[in-house]
Structure formats: C-alpha cells, structure tokens
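Q: Give me the 3D complex with magnesium ion.
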Amino acid sequence: QPVMAASALEVGGVKISKEDVVRDDPTNNVPDTIFTKLGMQLHRRDQHPLGILKNAIYDYFDANYSNKFEKFEDLCPIVPVIANFDDVLVPADHVSRSYNDTYYVDSQTVLRCHTSAHQAEILRSGHTHFLVTGDVYRRDSIDSTHYPVFHQMEGVRVFSPEDWESSGLDATTYTAQDLKTCLEGLARHLFGAVEMRWVDTYFPFTSPSFELEIFFQEKWLEVLGCGVMEREILKRSGKTENYAWAFGLGLERLAMVLFDIPDIRLFWSSDKRFTSQFTKGQLGVKFKPFSKFPPCYKDVSFWISEAFTENNLCEVVRGIAGDLAEEVQLIDNFTNKKGMTSHCYRITYRSMERSLTDEEINELQSKVREVVQEKLKVVLR
Ligand code: FA5
Ligand code: MG
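A: Here is the predicted complex, encoded as structure tokens.
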C-alpha cells in the first residue's frame, strides 16, 4: 500500500515528486487537489468498495475463461500524450485532448484520462487477454456521479481466425457478440437482476461501439464503454490477422449501483461510518447512509468572457470547497442586445460527514466569487 507522503510518492515503480507534476507554467494544469490523489490506488484496497468490486470482477473472469486474463493494476497514471491519445487513434483535433478536458503535466505528458492509454503498449508486449485497472483523471463537471479522479478497468480480448471461422459469423459480428455476452454475464454476476440497456455510441478506437446503462436512482446511468477494436491498433502491434474487443468500466459507477452509494465523493471518505460498512469479499451489502446533512445553495451570476468554460469554473470551486461542493449547475443563461452572455450557476454545498455553518459557507462562496473574477476573467453581476 503506497502511503501518501507530503510531496513525493512512488507508483508503478516510478518516483513522483510534487514539483514534477504541479508547476506554475502554461504547459501544466494540474492543481494541488489532484496531486494529492496520485498514488492513493483505492482499487487496491481489499476493504474499499472499489477493491471489493475489482476482486469480484477478477473472480468472474477467472471462473469463466480457462485462458486467464492477465491483470495490471499498478501502472503509473502519468503517461505520454502518445499513449493516451495517438496510440488509440484519437484525432489531433479531438476535444478530449484540450487543456479544458485533460490534465497535462507538460505538453507531451498527461495524467491518463482513461485506462485505454495502456492498450497499445500491452498488446505490443504480446498479451492477448488482459485487464488494466487504475485511477484516471479528467477535468469534468461536479455532481453526484462525476469526480475529477475516478477508476476504470480496461478489458481486452484478441481473437484469431479459427475462433470466428467455425461460428458461421463474420469476424466483427462474432467479436461484438462475444463482448456483449461477456459483459451481460458480468452484470448478472455482480447484480443479479438489474434493468440495463445497450446504447450505440462512438469511440475513435472501436467500431462498432456501445455503452451500457443501468437504471439507478430513477435515471439511466452510463457504466461502461466498449466495442470492437479498430484493426489499425492491432495491426500496429503486429496482429494483422486478428480481431479484438475492448471495454472500459467506470468502477465508481458500478460500485454505486452495487452498494447503493448515492454520491461519488463518498469513495474518498475516511469517515469510519463509511469505511466500516464494507468487508473484503462481500458484495451483497447495501450502504446505509449516516444521517443526511442539509444542502446549502448559493448562486453566482457573471458575464462570461470568450475563454470561459464550465470545467474551469468547476476546478475553481473544487480548489476552494473541495468535497464540500456537491453540485455545480447552470440555472440561467442569456445573451443581451449588446451580445454579452450571462451565466448563473447554482452551487450546492454539503458535507457528507457533518453540518456546515452559515459562516463557513459564506466564506467559501465569497472566495469562489473572488477567484472566479480574478482567474476566469468574468464580470460578476
Ligand atoms: C472511455 O473512457 C473509453 N476509454 C472506454 C472504452 C474502452 C471504450 C475500450 C471502448 C473500448 P468514457 O469516457 O465513456 O469512455 O468513460 C468510460 C466510463 O467511465 C463511463 O461509462 C463512466 O462509467 C465512467 N466515467 C466517465 N467520466 C466519469 C467521471 N467524471 N466520474 C466518474 N466516472 C466517470
Ligand atoms: Mg461515455
């Protein structure tokens, strides 16, 4: 278990110091709050819901495939831009590459935004069945199912001509069918009966591509993306005759459904009332919320500038309020006759662990107003 040091740590055999990751220069956009999450590896804690879930997924694969899936769970989350994007065919102008969406350590290096960052490298080293679990990082919105650090598990399975030739199906159909059978089986193994649906989607690295959604807390929740791997990726690793499938599971999302965890921030809680509810190897337990504390809503309105983005606002809010920020939601948006656009955001403050005082919240909100104005170049109304 890597223990967090104040300013240095080791993960995946790589030594990381804070100065390497958080710098005040334009090629770097990693804040302190993100640095502190590096090396925590929640997925490697057997008593943590993410670790319990990971182990249950391992059990499923071990029980169902005689050809064992290789497991990787300690790969360094700091990866080359090439691995995170180019190797999985993400186009040069794709939004996910922007500084607005991804944390850059420098112009050539990112905090991986998905475990797909390791696909190509592991294929190149000759593996054909593998699972990669790790923490991933994204500049993103703030609500109960989004967090800037979360965990994914990547799965890849490569097929050879003899696999599909006897089936009477073409290679793509065969591979897509095997993928869906595998993931539906996994869902049954984890949840028993659960309401779910497949949705067609797009990823640069798979075709066809699908998402699986599960009905949770009155809404459809996207829990994974997957598809038939683009042949180009296989060809580049020397597998010219092969087809493969790949998936990326959102572990927090699956664990929320599995354990009835209502808010994604709870995964980071060290409150005993949370941590003591989970036991190694136990899937069936439902989380019992300790008394729910009241939310406090604060609105902030401003005229936006051209450079304004919601992700930048969310990062400011997280930087100040941390996990006390439960949601940031655009509630009003209009453009006046002069062409100036106004946004009003409602920030919900709530602690998972205690009641917040008015003074405390007012202080946070006034700091948010100050920093938003200064850093995001907006004009408060
Ligand atoms: C991907 O990241 C693809 N790499 C998945 C993939 C792998 C597709 C291999 C095809 C083949 P996406 O951005 O949709 O896809 O994220 C995958 C899952 O991560 C989502 O379904 C969701 O469950 C979870 N997820 C995404 N963003 C967040 C977030 N901010 N907080 C928590 N979970 C998230
Ligand atoms: Mg998605």
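A quick observation: The chain has twelve helices and 16 strands.
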